[in-house]
């Protein structure tokens, strides 16, 4: 991680956005991934924030600039500027709150309106630690992802399940697309 690849002469910077209803865990997924932190009482602050993570593929440094809506979605005010230039997206719902799963199609419509069709997208069912109050089955998540052509993963920002994996699959897919020059 983070080792220099300057001598290879190639560097990549990919913008990735995280979207989904309020309180599904977007900020905590990002803070878990970028800083290994979790906050049970996080209060969204208004304004867009992003974190940059460095990864290495084939000896090349790949930087993922991951954007969090930071509460804008509460006012249905995620702007086209938020999506602009995004090469990938994590579309998040909360497995313990069905209404957040029902919103996914609206988020996908918005995403597809504002991003390139080749953007790498992952459907994320967060809070999988809340098995006892699960409201959306694993199969429902999988089958929605399949029908929409998305990657899929259930995660827990609380206990770290699949968080790193989810982000890194998206970054890897973007990198592969770029290497194959389809973007
Ligand atoms: P956002 O509005 O989508 O950015 O959601 P936040 O990251 O602010 O999280 C909303 C609430 O859900 C907070 O109280 C978090 O502590 C909680 N939360 C986030 N991720 C998880 C998770 O994986 N498991 C559980 N049990 N709670 C979570």
Give the SSE layout.
Elements: E1 11-20, H1 26-35, E2 49-57, E3 60-68, H2 80-83, E4 86-94, H3 98-102, H4 104-114, E5 120-126, H5 138-148, E6 151-154, H6 163-179
Parallel strand pairs: 1-3, 1-4, 4-5, 5-6
Antiparallel strand pairs: 2-3
The protein binds guanosine-5'-diphosphate (GDP).
Guanosine-5'-diphosphate binds at residues 22-28, 39-42, 44, 126-127, 129-130, 156-158.
Structure overview:
This protein is 32% helix and 26% strand. A 6-stranded mixed β-sheet has the order 2-3-1-4-5-6, sandwiched between helices. The protein has 183 residues and is of the alpha/beta class. The structure holds guanosine-5'-diphosphate. Guanosine-5'-diphosphate binds at residues 22-28, 39-42, 44, 126-127, 129-130, 156-158.
State the gist of this model:
GO terms for molecular function: GTP binding; GTPase activity. By secondary structure, this protein is of the alpha/beta class.
Please count the helical segments: 6
Helix fraction? 25-40%
Oligomer: single chain
Radius of gyration: 16 Å
Keywords: GTP-binding, Lipoprotein, Membrane, Nucleotide-binding, Prenylation
Family: Belongs to the small GTPase superfamily. Rab family.
GO molecular function, one term: GTPase activity
Subcellular location: Cell membrane
């Amino acid at each position: 991680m983070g080792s220099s690849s300057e001598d290879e002469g190639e560097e990549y910077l990919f913008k990735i956005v995280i979207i989904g209803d309020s309180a599904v865990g977007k900020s905590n997924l990002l803070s878990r991934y970028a800083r290994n932190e979790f906050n049970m009482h996080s209060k969204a602050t208004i304004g867009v924030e992003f974190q940059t993570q460095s990864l290495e593929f084939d000896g090349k440094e790949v930087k993922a600039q991951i954007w969090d809506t930071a509460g804008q979605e509460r006012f249905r005010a995620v702007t086209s500027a938020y999506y602009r230039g995004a090469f990938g997206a994590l579309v998040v719902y909360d497995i313990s709150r069905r209404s957040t799963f029902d919103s996914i199609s609206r988020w996908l419509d918005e995403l597809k309106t504002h991003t390139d069709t080749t953007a790498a997208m992952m459907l994320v069912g967060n809070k999988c630690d809340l098995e006892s109050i699960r409201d959306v089955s694993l199969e429902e998540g999988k089958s929605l992802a399949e029908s929409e052509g998305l990657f899929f993963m259930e995660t827990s920002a609380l206990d770290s399940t699949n968080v790193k994996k989810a982000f890194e699959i998206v970054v890897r897919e973007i990198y592969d697309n770029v290497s194959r020059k389809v973007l």
